[in-house]
Amino acid sequence: MPRRARNIRLTHLDAHSRPTMVDVGGKAVSHRIAEAEARVRLPAAVARALRRSGHRTKKGPVFDTAIVAGVMAAKRTSELIPFCHPLALEQCQINIGFAPKSAGAAVIVIHCRVEVRHKTGVEMEALTGATVAALTIYDMCKALSHNIRIASVRLLSKSGGKHVVGTRPGSRARMGTRARTRVAA
Predict the structure, then answer these.
(1) Is 139 part of the annotated catalytic residue set?
(2) For a Cys staple, 35 with which of 31, 86, 156, 159, CB 3.0–4.6 Å?
(3) How many C-beta atoms surround the C-beta of residue 155 within 10 A?
(4) CATH assignment of the domain containing 144
């Protein structure tokens, strides 16, 4: 095992290697921002049907419903992930749109940006928001095809805490021209 890997201490384990919540009592409050992205791959026929219908299926408006679901999930992350601290999010913004054309299947890109002033970060909230939005798209489109894949979920950036990830916090994910934006807290 590399030397650096042996020296890493997992923050959610106590001195006896039992699961524990991280104590953030001594940390300073700072403005924290995290951005995450999820990608959903659709068969070309499903993408065409969505575009023709204005992003609607029999279940309703796909992108709008995914935005609401993603925001709701981000706000409830501490109820889903055992050791996440409950946070009163100040902003959660989800953008959804088709990525520029690629060969074969079409790709929907979901971008979730979350902000808070707190002692702990919001990357789990951003990842949860993007993931649940992707799951919602799958659920609303599965009647058209079960060959839909949530291809990736990743943290794009985080800032405001001890570690900064990504190069440009606050930047928007690049999406096609049919992006939808909704802002909620």
Answers:
(1) yes
(2) 156
(3) 16
(4) 3.30.70.640
